[in-house]
Every structure is written in structure tokens, then in C-alpha cells.
Amino acid sequence: MRVPLPWLYEYCDPGLDVHAIEERLTMTGTKVEAILRQGVEHTEGFVVGRVISAEQHPDADRLKVCEVDVGARDGAHATIVCGAPNVAGGQTVAVATPGAVLPNGIELDRRKLRGIVSEGMILAEDELDLVAGAERAPGIIVLDELMLDAELAPGAPLAEVLPIATDVLELEITPNRPDCLGVYGVARELHAATGAPLSEPPWVADPGAEGALGAAEVIVECPDLCPRFTARVFEDVAIGPSPLWLRARLAAAGQRSISNVVDITNYAMLLTGQPLHAFDLDRVAGAKLVVRRAGAGERVQTLDGQTRTLDDEMVVIDDDDGPTSIAGVMGGARSEVGSDTTRVLMEVATWSGPNIHRTSWALGLRSEASSRFEKQLQPEQCMHAQAVAARLMVELCGATLLPGTIDVGGAPAEREVIRLRQARVGALLGLPIERERQAEILRALDFTARDAADGLDVGVPPLRRSDVTREVDLIEEIARIEGLEQLPATLPARRGAAGRLSHAQRVRRAAEDALVGRGLHEIVGWSFTEPSLLDRLQVPAGHPLREVVAIENPMSDGQSIMRPTLIGSLLDAARHNVARNGPDVAIFESGTVYRAGGEEGLAREHHGLGALLHGHLGARTWGGQEGAEAGFFAAKALLESLLGHLGVRFTVEREEWPFLHPGRSAAVHADAQLLGLLGELHPLVSEQWDLDRAAVFAIDLGKVAAAAPEVRAFVPFGSFPPLRQDLAVTLPDAVPAAQLTATVREAGGPELEDVRIFDLYTGEQVGEGRRSLALTLTFRAIERTLTDEDVAPRRKRIVDALAAIGGELRG
Amino acid sequence: MIDRIEQLRSEAEGEIGAAATSEELEQLRVRFLGRKAELPQLLRGVAQLDPAERGKVGAAANAARQALEALIEERTAQLAAAELSAGLVHDAVDVTLPGAPAQPLGSLHVLTSTRRELEDIFLGLGFTVMEGPEIETVHYNFDALNHSPTHPARARTDTFYVQRSGEGPEVVLRTHTSPMQVRAMEAHPPPLYVVIPGRVYRPDSDATHTPQFHQIEGLAVDEDITLADLKGTLLSFARAVFGETRDVRLRPHFFPFTEPSVEVDVSCFHCSGKGFMADGSRCPLCKGEGWLEVLGAGEVDPNVFAFVPTTAANAPGYDPEKVQGFAWGLGVERIAMLKHGVPDLRMYFENDLRLLGQF
Ligand SMILES: [Zn+2]
């Protein structure tokens, strides 16, 4: 909300500079987002001038050459060339002299206009930024027509006459404080925050009165949605432009000027927080307004020309010809105040905040009024706004206020009273505050406070009724005004507190660190993805990856589902980097993936770890060495390092995944649990992302953590040297290497410490359908040094076992 | 005989002294001291000489042999040292060439390293790290956090809703990590000290907003945890992250699930909280404020405690008259942005290696 400082000072003027005000308001909960300047930055050079003469410019039809008294000491007059049609000798005007800087940033200079040097400028309203919108008066400002109180001597500073340099506070008002959506509410905050006196509320002097009003009739059929409806009637209203002070004040507050009546409703709203609506009473059919729930499907045309379809939870205001407006949201064109209006019905009502919120969101129709009403205004505010508006209607529109006020619903008579235990304040804040001080703060905020046995009985001001309902809410009021700066910085007792990471969290960190240690860069991808991702990954219908979580209101179709796999994010990041930074890309992501169908309507989420390799692992160096090429075994080597580091025993078996190369695709298991997948991307998938050969793995880190030992037990290794023997064997292609090593391990017994494949050969020498594998066997005993003779029987059992799976010893 | 020995000796000494390589020296050793060389022959022949001659000749030959052996040894050492030096000179490399093969490490994403740094700070303050679902019910995301039914955050412009198939609770992408406050309290009795890092979602996209971002929630509940304790805890945090001379200030604010609610500012580390730089210009980081807004916090609203059912898991439960505590929610992206000067939040999720490799 924008609050022009002079307006605020009318009610509370602490005599502080604008930055001190900013600090006090911000530190007590009304955050000053910005300090704006309406008008000019510096007031130097802007003076009152008197037009001595205004003659036609010899060479320009539309220009006049004016001699202007600007109060120069030597009595000399300034020559000013002016294009305004209304300039005339004898006028008192606003003048910018050379050197003055206009609000648009232009510094005035003497300059020739059609051959005559102009020593300044006679100003119009818009040139001073005095008004907003197109509703400015045409031509220059004629000061003596404004009926200003100020002295209008030539040369007097213009700033003393017109609000040409107004500081405006841009405030952030939190949604619980609709009372601060009015200037007076902010003034009360400033009063509490600074101790400066607060003037009487502007609605105390009310030219109107209670009592019956026969000129119009109001019926409220749904008091649950309309707790209060008030109306007053004005006759002999003269519609016209508002005076400059009102237009300037509205402009500073960010409101356009429309006409005096509409400006008055806006002014009263900005001052009290409460929206008003002015009807042309002669256009209200039957002079009768009925507040009722709309019929389901009922259609209403609103002020903006749109036809809206309503439901039966929305409220309309009817006259005898049907709906005139959607209550609290937008008025109708039919009964709008116009230039020929003479009788005005001023409506000020209280609506149900939640209901207005619902209507405005359902219709997609937000207005200044609805944004205020939805925060729940209080019935008392109706008469605040009526009083302010009535005074101005009489003053500025020459209107006659008919006696009486239509008031349906009224306002509650009693204040809510809350017990505030004195000790609770200190106990919650960690800063004890004297009871007297508590009462003082509360009273400054319009609460009442009476001594009670263990504290205070506090009466809640009507405008705070929604926000302050409990003891803790009162404590907050005291805390913010007393000043949170006063709080000491202490630490909690931390009984029983012991900061630690869980096993799963430690496994996650270790896994990420291991991959970083191998040269991979971590990416953070989007949780969102597009439904076509699954097509591009060749995932067939009915596949579990298609059980996705879909978003009802995505920002775009490209972000309309939650990713069921990390592969998409990895591919996107790989494409981005291959295109920009070259082919060598080694990346991983550690993040959540989502599938539909979890418990309690939630998703099945797991924390995944995925890696993608493209190009080479490590760039070529001057020594000629090049990193491993990104392929199945490079990815598998990474996975082996990772899972080995975590102590997870795992197996890799062939299994096809739709987006992987069918011959280079595998499942990773720990015991019977599927940990994830490993393989080279299907060439058609790589192509979709403009990539060459790429290898990936993706595993479920939750399952990895479950398979990883929390504590590893010591395994004794003795002090005797190992015995190493090599063994070359040919096998049918169909026997996987894992079966070979498993067979050797089983036959090798407990002293076989390690089996390592160090060579693989296929070719003529081993024959069609067979391949040769060379193994290094490492034997070691705890308690002695082994000899060839010691292991000979074991070796024979290994050879026999290999023969059983089709193995033949070579060489 | 003696003369011959002396002659041999001086001849050998001359040649050994002149030998330029160890091979030459070896040849000289064979020539003068080898089995077939003259001097050893002479020594072997000493037995056949007159007894009167025998002693003198033997002593002279022996002395000559020992002298030559010593000389060769000395000369060998000299030559070896010279050859080693020459070899070392020859082996010299251009030490300014890069290491090979290169073994560059990768990197953690700056959001991960920042999150871990923050986790570690709070671990040190006694908080346990917990995590929870990103796809969350409206109950935990809004209702149990005391959001009124009309709270604007519930609007479809402010929250992503998940498509429902059939009946079931209304489900959203969590808009904050706060739903875990209630879940944590449902699972554990007081006292409770937890931080909850995680990804959250709001439909917003510009240089300072992305539809996904990361928060770290904090929650401490015990019998007597005060707003001053919140201030102290966040002061420790601010100093650990931004430097030992930082200060914090609490500004009153409004959140539905804390009361009192505050926004927390840290004194600007770029201008030491002055708001302007040494040259008098306005500080570009805090825009002259001297303070940087880093998080929202407050004392847990009693209504939130009232939403926590008492069960076997958390007995004796969370009676608002008996427990109190504080909570905060801070943005990881914002901390990383402030600390490292990343200008545009969207860059975090672009994953360009030129960014990733910097941290
Ligand atoms: Zn700064």
C-alpha cells in the first residue's frame, strides 16, 4: 500500500525524518518496501510566478510570449514562451526556472522557441506529476483558481503552495492486518511505534445521523454472507472534477482521479481501509437494493462489459430490474455514477471474507474492493467510511445529505476480552516485560487493558477482531512494539538433542562424494518433465515408468508430470553441455523420482542416484593418455567403485530396459532387491538428445543404503605372502564371466583370496562360439606360506569344475 | 723388477686418470689388474724370486696393486657421479607441463554443497536431519499449518495441485518444507530438534524465482524454547555461514503457523552492514539497506501443536500449554546466491559445466 507522508502526518507526526519513520515502521511489522517520490526530486527552481502579459508569438500561432514576474530581486521579468491555450495576463502560475529538474528527469535550460529565448516554463499538472492518469485539467495550473490558503507572492517557493515533492511510503501489509490498508490504521501503528500523539479518527466528526431513511430501501436476504449493509443518500450532487489537492493526494497514493464522487469513495477507502460504492440513485430501479445469493448458472454483466456466470454461493445486489453488481467484487454499468448524476446512494457494506475470496477466484475477477473484502473487514468500518465520505460529498460536491442511515445488520456492541498472563509474555519471548509496559503498548494499539489476578484482561479493538483471538496474539503485539531488537540471543537448552545424520543420509553423501572423486559433476535437474519424455525414451504402454504423477495446473506442458526417472534430466544436461562445452561429459544426479500410487494418496518417491558418461572420462593430455571411452564397462567400473566403497555386495545380470541398447543393458541387484539399471543408451534414444554413445546407471539410494552395512567388521588377513597362479580357459560364449568367476570361487575354497580376469580373447585359435579368458588366482592362508604343492589339489578342483561348465584349459 | 713395477704403476695411474668413461676404466682395470695382466702376474711370480728380492718386490707390487685399485675405485666413483649428473641433466623435464594423465575431480552442485554446509552447522547445534515427501496432502501442507481455508497460498496460481484419480485427499507439490513440522511431531515426542532440507514448488519463474527450489526447515520444541533462543540459534547460523562479525535482526511479520512471526535479516557481509562501500557508492548486494533478508521464522503457533494427535509414537504429545518452540524456513538458493553471487536462479538448474565446475 502507498501512503503519502503528508497524509500520514495529518494523524500522527513524530517529527522524524523519513528514514527514521521507515526504520520504526519496518521494525514493528509494517515493512517499508520503498520510499517513493511523487513529483520532483529537488524543489529548487520551482516558484510562484505572475503573468504580467501574454502576447501572441510573432512566428507561431499556438505560442504566446509571456512576461512573468518570478520575484527576481532586480525586478526583471522572465520571458517565457508558453503553448497553453489558457495562459493569460494577470494569472498566478507555477513556474520552473532554468536549472530546475522536472519529474521526468529533464533539466530546464534557456532555449529558443521559434526565435525567442524562453527563460523557463509555465507548468501544467502532468508536468509536475501532480496527478495520475488522463484526467488532468487541460492547460497550465492557474494557482489563483485553486482557492489555496497559501500566500501567492511571485518568487515564493512552489513547494509551499503545491505538493510538488511528496514522499510516499510503499508498505507491505501482511494479510492479517486489513486495518492497515487505511492511512489511519498506519498512523496508529506509527503512534504505537514512536509514542507520537495520534489525532482523533477522521470519522469522529460525522455530518450524518442514524435513523430511518425513506429515499431508498435495502433488503439483505443472506445476512451470513453480508453481516452489515449501510447506505446514505445525497441530493443536489454536482458531478465534476475533484480539486487539485484531492487529485494530487490520490495520485500520490497510486489512484487515478475519475470524478469528484468516485474520488471521494477512493479517498475514504484509502483513509479507512473500507471500500465504498456510489450508485446513481435515479438509475436504481425502484430505489431498492436486494442482497441475495445468485442462482446457479445466473448470468450477470459486469462493469468491464463481460458476462459472468455465477453459482449459488455468490452474492449479487439486485434492483427492481435485476442484478446491478456482484457484491464486494464488481459493480454493474447500469447504475454507475455519471456526469448527469444528481442523486447518489452511498453503499458501504461488510461481506464475508472467505466468500468474497471464493467468488473472486472462481470468476477470475480481482478488484481493489475484493482484495480488501477477502481479508475480512469489520462491520464498524462501514460507518467510518460513511462519515468520511459524507463530509467530503457535502464539501466538494455541494451535495445535500438526507437525514438518516440505512443500516442492516449493525455492529457487535461488545469487545472480546482475552486474559493475558503476565508471566507468559516473558516465558515465550525470553524477555520479561513489566505489566505496566504491556498495558501501555496494548492501549496504544487501541486495545483496552484492565488489571487481572495474573496479568491483564485485554479488550480487542473491533478492527483487530479476526487477527487477535488468543493470548499468544497479544504477546506478539507486545513483542513487536517493545522491539525485537531488545531480545537477547540465547541458545535453547537442547535437552536430549544430538545432531546426527541417518545411515541413509551418510550413504547418500558417501555415494555423491565417490562419484565426485571419480571426476563426475553433480547436476540438479527439474522434478518436472514433459509427458513425451516417455515416448522419447521408448517406454511402451503399460510399463511401470508410465505410472506418473501428473500436475493439474502446470506452468507448461513441458512441466506437467513429475519425473519417473533421472535419465531424462541427465540426458537434458548432457545435450546442453555437449552442444556448448564439447563431447566429454561425466555427470550425475542425486535426487527424488516419483511414481503414482503411494499410500494416503501420495506418490511413491525414492531418492535416486543416476550417472551419465559421454565422450571420454578425462580429456586427452600431452602425454598421449586418454581417459576411458564412455561405454558399458566404464559405467560399470564406476558403479563397482561406488558400491564397493559402500560395502554393498551386488550382482549385474542382463536385462533389457526400453531406452537401453538391448545387448548392453543390465539390472543391478543386491540379494533379491533390484537396485537399478546399468547400460549403454539405445542409439535411437541418444539420437533424440543429439548424443553419441553414452552409458548410464541409475540406482535407488534407499535400497543401496539398506544393503550397505552401517558398521563393517574387521576381517583378519595374517602376515604370510600370497601365491599367485594364472589360468587360461576357453569357454562357450554362452557362459557369462560372472558364472566363470563364481565357479572358480566355489571350487577354490577358503584360501582362494581373489580371482581376477586379466585377458579376454576370441578368434580362430579358440574356435567358433568359444572365447578364452585368462585368470589370476590369488591364494593365501592365514597361518602359513602356501606352496604350489599346497594349492595343486585346489587347482585341480577348479579345473574340474570349469570342465563341468564347458571349460577347457589352454596352454 | 722394482723399476718395472713403478713403470707399470705410473703408466696405469696416467691412463686411469685420463679415462673418460666407466667402460674405459673397466678396460684399464682388466689391462692392469686382470688375471692376465702384468702386475698380478708379477705378484704371482714373487714366490720364484730370491728370498732377498722376494720381500721388496712383493711389497712394491702389492703396494702398486693396492694403489691402482684405490685409484680405480676413486676414479669410478668420480665418473659415476659425473655420469649420473649428466644423466640427470638429460632427464630434466618441463615442469610447467600439466600433470598427466590428468585426474580432475568432479564437483558437487553448489546447491548440494550449500545444503550440506547448512546441515552441518545445524548438526553442530544439536539438530537431527529429517526428510519427507515432496508430494504432500493439503492437510499437512496447509490445514495442519493453520492456514485459513481462504489463505491465498492455496490458490491454484500459488500452488501446484496433483491430478487425482478418483477419491482421496487433495494432494499438492509441497510449497514449503513446513509440512514436515507436523509429520516430525507425529513421529517423535518432545523435546524435538530437527532440520528438514528438501525441494519445494511454487508456480513462479523469473530471475529470482524458479518453480522448484530448496528449503531447510528448522523446528525445536521443548518446554521453554523462546523467541530469544531462535535469535541465538540463527545468530550462530548467520555467523557460521557469512562470517564471525555478522549480526541478525528480527522483524515482525506474519505467517499462519508461527506466532509471533518474524523475518530475519543478516547484516550485509559485502559492506559490513554499512549499506555503502568504501568509495561511498551504494552497496550493490543489500541495495544500501545494510541488511539481507534470509529467512522467515517464529514461535510455533499453538494451533499447530493442536493439530498433532497424541499417539504411542509421540506420547506424551504436544499440548500447547506445555510445550513451545520455534521454527524457521530458509531458502538454499538464496543463501547460495548471496554467498557466491550467482546472478540468476535459473542458472542453478541449467547444469552448464562452466557453472558446475566453479564450486
Ligand atoms: Zn551491503
What's the structural blueprint in terms of helices and strands?
The complex is a heterodimer of chains A (811) and B (359).
Chain A: E1 2-4, H1 5-9, H2 18-27, E2 31-39, E3 46-56, E4 64-69, E5 78-82, E6 92-96, E7 111-113, E8 116-118, E9 121-122, E10 165-172, H3 183-194, E11 217-220, E12 228-235, H4 244-252, H5 260-272, E13 277-280, E14 288-293, E15 299-301, E16 307-309, E17 315-319, E18 322-326, E19 344-350, H6 353-363, H7 368-373, H8 380-397, E20 400-401, E21 406-408, E22 417-421, H9 422-429, H10 435-444, E23 448-452, E24 455-459, H11 471-482, H12 503-517, E25 521-523, E26 528-529, H13 532-536, E27 561-562, H14 567-581, E28 585-595, E29 604-614, H15 632-646, E30 651-654, E31 660-670, E32 673-681, H16 683-688, E33 694-700, H17 701-707, E34 723-732, H18 737-748, E35 752-761, E36 770-779, H19 788-804, E37 808-809
Parallel strand pairs in A: 11-14, 25-28
Antiparallel strand pairs in A: 1-10, 2-10, 3-4, 3-6, 4-5, 6-9, 7-8, 12-19, 12-20, 12-21, 13-19, 14-17, 15-16, 17-18, 22-24, 23-24, 26-27, 28-29, 29-33, 30-31, 31-32, 32-33, 34-36, 34-37, 35-36
Chain B: H1 2-18, H2 22-33, H3 38-45, H4 51-90, H5 110-124, E1 128-129, E2 135-137, H6 138-141, E3 171-173, H7 179-187, E4 192-201, E5 212-222, H8 227-242, E6 248-255, E7 258-267, E8 291-300, H9 302-306, E9 324-331, H10 332-340, H11 353-356
Helix pairs in contact in B: 1-4, 2-4, 3-4, 5-8, 5-10
Bound molecules: zinc ion.
The greatest interface here is:
A-B, 101 and 94 residues
What percent of residues of chain B are in strands?
15-25%
CATH topology category name of the largest domain in chain B: BirA Bifunctional Protein, domain 2
**DSSP strand count of chain B:** 9
CATH topology of the largest domain in chain A: BirA Bifunctional Protein, domain 2
Our count of domains of chain A comes out at: 6
Number of domains of chain B: 2
Spatial order of the strands forming the largest sheet of chain A = 25-28-29-33-32-31-30
Assign the CATH architecture of the largest domain in chain A.
2-Layer Sandwich
CATH C-level class of the largest domain in chain B is: Alpha Beta
Any low-confidence stretches of chain A, pLDDT <50, length ≥5?
Answer: none
Side-by-side strand order of the widest sheet of chain B: 1-4-5-9-8-7-6
One letter per element, helices H and strands E, the order of chain B comes to HHHHHEEHEHEEHEEEHEHH
What is the CA-based Rg of chain A, rounded? 42 Å
